[in-house]
Amino acid sequence: MFQFVFSRAYCTNSIRRKWKEFEKTLGCAEEGHPSLGDPDWASYTLGVFICLSCSGIHRNIPQVSKVKSVRLDAWDEAQVEFLASHGNDAARARFESKVPSFYYRPTPSDCQLLREQWIRAKYERQEFIYPEKQEPYSAGYREGFLWKRGRDNGQFLSRKFVLTEREGALKYFNRNDAKEPKAVMKIEHLNATFQPAKIGHPHGLQVTYLKDNSTRNIFIYHEDGKEIVDWFNALRAARFHYLQVAFPGASDADLVPKLSRNYLKEGYMEKTGPKQTEGFRKRWFTMDDRRLMYFKDPLDAFARGEVFIGSKESGYTVLHGFPPSTQGHHWPHGITIVTPDRKFLFACETESDQREWVAAFQKAVDRPMLPQEYAVEAHFKHKP
After folding, report:
1. pTM of this prediction?
2. What is the CATH number of the domain that holds 66?
3. 32 falls in which pLDDT band (50, 70, 90)?
4. How close are the terminal C-alpha atoms of the chain, in Å?
5. Tell me, what DSSP letter sits at residue 121?
């Protein structure tokens, strides 16, 4: 067939007319929902429209995907016809036909690693066409070596990790030949979230679990992006299967949001003690669901203290500012959290920080407490 180059305007209009016919195909094929505007890039070998950010990832797998700008590049007739006859919906039907319920689908706000591995899993490795390729994270058992940050010295050392659904635990060992694990993390109370900026590595993963009703952090990474994302999805799979047993009547849609969670808000604030007469001290705060934890350093293993933030029906309130005559704070923008037991005072450096923290706290306060959260509240120990 004779190939020739269309004018840019003709090609752009031709492509746009086609994809406007199918509202569900609007947006980036990798983001799972319509974007705010039309995507300006397309893969003419896969037949999908993508955003600028995802186009860079597609370029890194040229053996699978070749991309062009919808607005700036010239398109030949065959490329336009291929796009017109395929599209985002057709690609999802093929390349996402067997995505496990537990597999994490990244959003535009997720780190580069998660988005890149999602795209590679779909098109390069075709993991969601051939379920046998999902074995690394769906088998119920996984072991390997990860770089783990030392609790006291901050040095990353290679440690053996074992995930076993049968025992309902993630374990790690300080020595390769160790008989007993250094720590046993129950799947029931485990969470994992990618924190590349915080950890200082593009593959950095933060794993948290409960130890004596307090949160314990460990920070890990692997040099291979696929390896660490496989670990992440293996942890989600283990959580999924645990919750299926714990809540036999729940649907997959009910369980998936509980598999792992990103933090509602993190950053520095100042705080004072329970008597509100001590000086304010700068601390790193993490809002994890209803647990507000504070640390001397963002990479500390244990929080200096934790505050449970319940609902307004249970007597919790969030206020802008401080009580009268509050002293000792260096940062000017105050927040007061009123609980049934006491008031907690925090200071933010900027007004925008204050607004964001108040919004995060208010979100928790406005949400009615679940039955199991009352049990957490009853056993929660407020630490100064």
Report:
1. 0.88
2. 1.10.220.150
3. low
4. 76
5. I
CA 27 from chain centre, in angstroms, equals: 21
What CATH number did the domain enclosing 285 receive? 2.30.29.30
Closest CA to 73 of 3, 5, 1, 2: 5
Q: Which strand ranges, in their side-by-side order, compose the sheet holding 305-308? A: 305-308, 291-295, 281-288, 265-271, 343-348, 333-338, 317-320
H-type alpha helices, 47-98: 52-59, 77-85, 88-95
Same domain for 178 and 233, yes or no, is yes
Phi and psi for 293 in degrees, rounded to 5?
Answer: -110, 150
Residue 288, CA distances (Å) to 25, 226, 320 in order: 34, 26, 21
Q: In 10 A of CB 349, how many CB atoms?
A: 16
Structure tokens at 213: 């009703």
Q: Express each pLDDT in 144-183 by its tens digit.
A: 999 999 988 889 999 999 999 999 999 999 988 899 999 9
Q: What is the mean pLDDT of the chain?
A: 89
| Identity at 120, one-letter amino acid code | R
Helix residue ranges per DSSP H, the chain: 8-20, 52-59, 77-85, 88-95, 112-119, 135-138, 196-199, 225-246, 252-255, 351-366, 371-379
Supply the range of the domain harboring residue 191.
138-251
Give, as one character, the DSSP assignment of residue 242: H
